[in-house]
Design brief:
The chain has 4 helices and no strands. With 68 residues, it is mainly α.
C-alpha cells in the first residue's frame, strides 16, 4: 500500500500535465452535481478518447470521481 506521501506525489504528477489541470479546474468550477464529459471536452478542445485517458488518470489518483 502506498504511503500518503507517495499518493500525494502521484497526484502532483497527474496535475503536472496542463490538460489535466484544465480539466480539474473546469470540474471544480462546474455544477455541484457534476460536470458532463461533453462540457469538459468542449472547454479543453480535445478528442473524446484523449479526454477519457486524462479523466482516468485523475480518477486513478483520487482527484476526480468519474460516473458513467
Amino acid at each position: 500500500m502506498a504511503t500518503l506521501l507517495e499518493q500525494n506525489a502521484e497526484r502532483m504528477k497527474a496535475l503536472g500535465h496542463p490538460v489535466r489541470l484544465a480539466i480539474l479546474r473546469r470540474v471544480v468550477q462546474g455544477r455541484p452535481e457534476g460536470t458532463p464529459a461533453g462540457e469538459i471536452q468542449e472547454h479543453v478542445g480535445i478528442p473524446a478518447s484523449t479526454l477519457s485517458h486524462h479523466l482516468a488518470c485523475l480518477a486513478e489518483t483520487g482527484l476526480l470521481c468519474v460516473e458513467r
